[in-house]
Amino acid sequence: MLLTPTGARRHGGQMGRHRKLAWVIATAVVAGALGLVVPSRASGSCVGPALAVGSSPSASPTPQRPEVIQHGQAVTVTGEGFHRGCADSYSVRPGCHGSSAEPDDPEAPLADVQLTLHQQSQTWVLGTANATGEHYSTSWTWQLPSDVQPGPAELRAGSATLTVAIP
Predict the structure, then answer these.
(1) Cβ-contact 53, 163 below 8 angstroms
(2) pLDDT at 7 over 80
(3) Residues with Cβ < 8 Å from 66, sequence gap 6 or more?
(4) What distance in Å separates the CA atoms of residue 128 and residue 120, rounded to the nearest whole number?
(5) Which whole number is the average pLDDT over 97-115?
(6) Which fold, 47-85+107-166?
(7) 130, 112 Cβ separation under 8 angstroms
């Protein structure tokens, strides 16, 4: 215990330290509530491209069986998610008019996306298209090459694959 010049008792420096700690905590809570302190990054998940026969991949459930493609039939394959970059993480920057989030790796549509058919050791190029729109969508319309054999095959575009059956 210390005596002050007026003779009052004072308990060491403990009260001063507790008040400082309380002030720091209160300031942090108020700053957080006002949005003055923002996290430096936000993140998510970047989904890869997908393919479907006919309608868009997001409108079609994942097929339980391979899609059947007939010789002589016009086939349309649609794809989504064909972009470079991956806006799955953002840097948050405080500013005069609030904070803003900008992607660290902005997305842009891919050009010249090639659709191929793979069966055993054979590969056929079925078409090339550019991705567009907010879902980075594209589509190809084609017919099976005459030398494709009956059996399983796989459609590929970028990293997207779709198993098909040729009767």
Answers:
(1) no
(2) no
(3) 152, 163, 164, 165
(4) 22
(5) 79
(6) Immunoglobulin-like (2.60.40)
(7) yes
